[in-house]
Write a structure and sequence with these properties.
Layout (H helix, E strand, L loop, with lengths): L2 H22 L5 H6 L6 H12 L3 H13 L5 H4 L8 H11 L4 H9 L2 H34 L2 E4 L2 E4 H53 L11 H8 L17 H14 L6 H4 L7 H32 L4 H5 L4 H9 L4 H37 L5 H25 L3 H10 L5 H9 L5 H25 L15 E9 L2 H15 L8 E2 L5 E6 L2 E6 L4 E8 L6 E6 L7 E9 L2 E7 L6 E7 L1 H4 L12 H26 L5 H11 L7 H13 L22 H26 L4
């Protein structure tokens, strides 16, 4: 990078730290630090929700999957889309809770400080894992822009070991100083930067396509027309299988998992509406902020399509598609703007981590330190403890990022990790019969079946690794399809041929000037490919996925697969079934997938696809905690009627932005809790669903329509450049 780029980055860091110092002067109490005094309007709430939900991993994942498989790669980030309308309803919850942490809610609803403490520990681990994903993403993106190593004190050190701790220090400095207010004000700046990130490469990239002599000789085509000319038509399919990890089945399961788990993510108490001035501010901010991210995602997809057309033949990207965004930025932007781009990506990271740091600190402070360690401390002490805990949380994220460094693994963990506390939250929100003991049993069940038994069970019983009924894999198939080559395919093949040519002594591979014809000399003679006419084999492996373990391997590592069945599917497609030789001893490795073992008596798991297995694994994690808790609620003693009356009366009392008036309204509701029966959907029952208001229905319907509008916009983007 150029000196100008480093100046931009340095100035950006100073600005953020300055905001933190400024906000620090206004912090006197916990509510000031943890909730910013609940004084945020629609604008700041919008960018807070946008920032908290947008991480540096998002454009990276989108660009990677789009570069390798086309527009369907957008679902690696867009799977939250149809969860967004429900935010119109949930935003009101967090404002009416009137709590500083979600742990406080568990304490109030279940009359247990201990369950609040358990939730606080969960919340901190969640933040560490979630934050680590963002740190990993920014390091991955920065590598093609800065280099894989940096020189420090005369030694070459991997970039991630320098960049990640540096960013963490900046986040800690402004977040620790200014609390949630600093996070929100910086999120406003960082949100603008993220939006700029989402669009700045598009006009530059389209111009590069239009002006490229190799890709657009004569300059007769527009940028979108060049994309369609260069890329396979499959790249413009919105619903496809480009990203195997996010097939349609898995996406549906993820949507339900997110709907169940998002509400218990600890930062939602703040960014989900709890810090807003009013309920309407909470609703508008949360929904608009998240829809803003969905539109930005389309910008990332379009940018990645441009990169796929421009850099189809770049060896670095062929080998490391994670670097697509960083490479495009490096090639398309000039000095200073590269630093701005990196600052935008840093903004996406920081806008997620800063709020999580503050909220996580609040959890430990209010639900662990104050009730169990130091109940007699003063506000000054509590504020400093909160700041120290925030440092620890960010430090933990850094450690996870430097040790795991696997975005996909980190992302998948965040899908189901919140489900540990999901059932107690949902049932506690709407059902009076939800009990404290049932909540504890459910959390314990989730910990045992999600974590403890899968990890420690095989270590306690090593024979499980060799249990032949558990070392099964899905049917392993290799499908070879003769597909028409595109111009981008020829360019990629030309690059690969050049790398192999230098040591052969044969004639140099030749790609025609218009990119439609490639000739490669081989020992068997010349081979010619013509775009749109010549077919090339495209090999796709499917199945062979371990069902009940992370992976299954033969005891004899020299054992290889045999082709046991060959089938001609159609004129251009041959499908082969691969198996280990009969009698091969297999062993399972990694964690035992206990939730899939539940299906063993009922389903032939070998016939399932990998995406089906991923979906099936999520179903018990979503459903079973609810079933366990419902059953246990009927078998355990109900919570006190007085506490339940107060809680549900509060949740049915709209918030007044004036604190004194709000307290007066709450006092009246507590004095006559039975008055709220008239607004219940099922009066005189244990179910606490409220009758939907006109505002509830209108906002939800508009949000659903917006979801389909975004998908429609994606289809329109795909059609650009088609004559």
């Amino acid at each position: 990078m150029h000196v100008a780029d480093y100046i931009v980055l340095f100035g950006y860091f100073l600005l953020l730290i300055g905001i933190g110092v400024y906000c620090m002067r206004r912090i006197k109490h916990q509510e000031d630090y943890l909730m910013g005094g609940r004084g945020f309007g629609k604008l700041l709430q919008t960018f807070a929700a946008f920032g908290a939900g947008t991480g540096s991993s998002d454009p990276i994942n989108t660009a990677r999957n789009t570069y390798t498989g086309g527009m369907s790669g957008m679902w690696s980030v867009m799977f939250w889309l149809f969860v967004t309308p429900f935010y119109w309803i949930t935003a009101v919850w967090y404002r009416r809770m009137r709590h500083l942490t979600l742990g406080d809610w568990y304490v109030e609803r279940y009359e247990s400080k201990k369950i609040g403490a358990a939730y606080s520990i969960f919340g901190v681990f969640f933040f560490m894992i979630y934050g680590s994903m963002f740190f990993t993403a920014i390091a991955t993106t920065a590598e093609p822009m800065i280099g894989e190593t940096v020189s420090l004190f005369g030694n070459d050190i991997a970039l991630k070991y320098v960049l990640i701790p540096t960013i963490a220090i900046v986040v800690v400095l402004y977040g620790m100083a200014g609390g949630l207010a600093a996070a929100y004000y910086t999120d406003l700046i960082q949100g603008i930067c993220i939006i700029a990130l989402s669009i700045m490469l598009i006009p530059i990239g389209l111009n590069a396509l239009n002006s490229s002599e190799n890709l657009n000789p004569g300059g007769n085509m527009s940028g979108p027309e060049v994309m369609h000319d260069q890329l396979p038509e499959s790249f413009f399919e919105i619903i496809g299988s480009s990203a195997a990890e996010f097939s349609i089945y898995y996406l549906i399961a993820i949507i339900f998992a997110n709907l169940a788990g998002i509400v218990v993510q600890p930062h939602f108490i703040a960014t989900g509406g709890g810090s807003a001035k009013s309920e309407q501010d909470a609703r508008v901010g949360l929904v608009v902020g998240n829809f803003l991210k969905r539109f930005c995602t389309l910008g990332w997809v379009f940018t990645a399509l441009i990169a796929a057309a421009l850099y189809a033949d770049v060896p670095e990207l062929i080998e490391h598609p994670d670097r697509t965004w960083g490479y495009a930025s490096m090639e398309l932007l000039g000095p200073g703007f590269r630093g701005l781009m990196l600052a935008c990506l840093l903004a996406a990271l920081m806008s997620s981590v800063d709020a999580q740091m503050v909220v996580g600190a609040g959890l430990i402070l209010r639900n662990l330190y104050m009730p169990f360690i130091r109940p007699t401390g003063d506000e000054k002490e509590y504020l400093w403890v909160g700041r120290v805990v925030g440092v620890v949380i960010v430090g933990g994220s850094v450690v996870f990022a430097l040790t795991i460094f696997d975005m996909l693994g980190q992302l998948q963990l965040t899908f189901w990790f919140p489900l540990v506390f999901a059932a107690p939250f949902w049932l506690g929100m709407y059902w009076r019969r939800a009990t404290t003991r049932a909540a504890w049993i459910t959390v314990t069940y989730c910990l045992l079946f999600f974590f403890v038994i899968p990890f420690f069970g095989p270590k306690v019983v090593p024979s499980l690794h060799r249990n032949q009924s558990l070392v099964e894999s899905t049917i392993h198939q290799r499908t070879t399809t003769q597909v028409l080559v595109s111009k981008s395919d020829l360019r990629r093949k030309h690059t690969e041929a050049l790398e192999a040519w230098s040591s052969t002594g044969l004639e140099k591979p030749h790609l025609s000037q218009d990119g439609t014809r490639l000739v490669v000399d081989s020992k068997d003679g010349k081979v010619e490919w013509i775009a749109g006419k010549t077919r090339q084999p495209k090999v796709k492996r499917s199945g062979g996925k371990s069902i009940y373990w992370d992976k299954v391997v033969p005891e004899d590592k020299e054992t290889t697969f045999l082709t046991t069945l060959t089938e001609q599917v159609d004129e251009f497609t041959v499908q082969e079934t691969l198996e280990y030789p009969v009698g091969t001893e297999l062993r399972g490795e990694g964690n035992l997938k206990l939730n899939l073992v539940l299906y063993k008596p009922f389903l032939d798991m070998k016939t399932k696809t990998g995406s089906s297995l991923n979906a099936l694994e999520l179903v018990p994690k979503i459903v079973m905690p609810f079933l366990v808790m419902i059953i246990c609620c009927f078998l355990t003693r109900p919570n006190s009627q007085e506490a339940l009356d107060r809680y549900y009366a509060k949740m049915k009392t709209p918030v007044d932005p004036d604190p004194e008036k709000d307290q007066a309204k709450l006092a009246a509701a507590y004095a006559d809790p039975g008055n709220t029966e008239r607004i219940k959907l099922f009066p005189n029952s244990n179910l606490e669903f409220q009758k939907p208001t006109t505002a509830d229905i209108t906002g939800f319907v508009i949000s659903v329509i917006t979801c389909f509008a975004i998908i429609g916009f994606a289809f329109w983007m795909a059609s650009l450049g088609i004559g």
